[in-house]
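Quiz preparation item.
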């Protein structure tokens, strides 16, 4: 019987996708239980079918009001904590240097608790690990955990995407988890027009609050995927992906699509999609970058300072690299 492993990844879609190769490798040696946001259940059949998924929207992952303790779902937290304790995990891990994760690993009774200590949280870990290089990609944290468990994960340079049939379609997704990560929609519209003029079929997708804008701009067939399953269907029908620094780009990359990302407040060296052909453009310099989406300005100057011409020049280079001539032919 395989030893039982508990994995905590309680944050965003992109964060969970980055954990995928760890989950895949771990499921070969362990009986893995993942605690994640509900979209983890939709990813499970596609990315890591051997992993059991428990859903939890942890209140401390809220963007605002995360410490309004009187609003926390205490009954649900107690229920899932007891459920996890009954499982008697041999090992529990978190790739975040987050004392809240480490305390929870202690409360659920994982016998061996592996993670990156911070603010005294080493007291809740049995195997505190040294942090990777400060400029290392988020994926490197999972590689450190893998080494601690005697698992093999390839380096970023060694990652190979799954094979995909070629098509003429670019999926342009203009949404993001936070508004400060969204490049202006009118500039996306100009970008879409230039791609179509080059002969590309472009499918525009967006977040629900953006739908009316796109429809009024003449994009009658704009897609508004409300589930990860619907997003996966759009990705499977495309050949390339262009979008903001957000979960859809990470999902497209792990499904095999070369991606082009417009970065704003976050750093590409930390969060670039995991695809060997991934490219990006970084927003304007800002003294507060990375601000982790808590922008100090009335508008995100890092993104709004990027013109259509600058982004188009970078997209042209991306298309030239993934398609000779930069066209779908």
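Solution:
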């Amino acid at each position: 019987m395989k030893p039982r492993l508990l994995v905590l990844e309680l944050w965003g879609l992109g964060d969970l996708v980055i954990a995928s190769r760890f989950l895949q490798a771990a499921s070969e040696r362990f009986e893995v239980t993942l605690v994640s946001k509900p979209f983890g259940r939709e990813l499970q059949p596609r990315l890591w079918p051997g992993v059991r998924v428990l859903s939890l929207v942890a209140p401390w992952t809220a963007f605002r009001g995360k410490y309004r303790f009187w609003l926390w779902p205490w009954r649900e937290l107690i229920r899932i904590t007891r459920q996890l304790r009954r499982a008697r995990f041999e090992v529990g891990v978190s790739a975040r240097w987050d004392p809240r994760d480490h305390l929870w690993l202690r409360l659920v009774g994982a016998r061996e608790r592996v993670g990156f200590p911070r603010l005294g949280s080493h007291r809740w870990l049995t195997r505190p690990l040294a942090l990777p290089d400060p400029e290392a990609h988020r994926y490197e944290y999972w590689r450190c955990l893998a080494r601690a468990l005697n698992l093999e994960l390839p380096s970023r340079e060694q990652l190979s995407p799954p094979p995909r049939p070629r098509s003429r379609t670019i999926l342009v997704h203009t949404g993001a988890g936070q508004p400060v990560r969204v490049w202006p929609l009118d500039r996306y519209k100009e970008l879409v027009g230039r791609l179509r003029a080059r002969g590309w079929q472009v499918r525009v997708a967006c977040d629900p609050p953006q739908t009316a804008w796109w429809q009024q701009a003449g994009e009658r067939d704009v897609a508004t995927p409300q589930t990860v399953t619907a997003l996966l269907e759009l990705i499977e029908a495309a050949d390339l992906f262009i979008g903001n620094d957000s979960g859809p780009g990470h999902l497209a990359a792990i499904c095999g699509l070369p991606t082009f990302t417009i970065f704003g407040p976050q750093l590409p060296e930390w969060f670039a999609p995991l695809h060997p052909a991934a490219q990006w453009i970084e927003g304007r310099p800002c003294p507060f970058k990375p601000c982790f989406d808590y922008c100090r300005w009335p508008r995100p100057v890092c993104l709004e300072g990027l013109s259509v011409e600058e982004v188009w020049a970078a997209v042209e280079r991306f298309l030239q690299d993934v398609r000779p001539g930069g066209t779908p032919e």
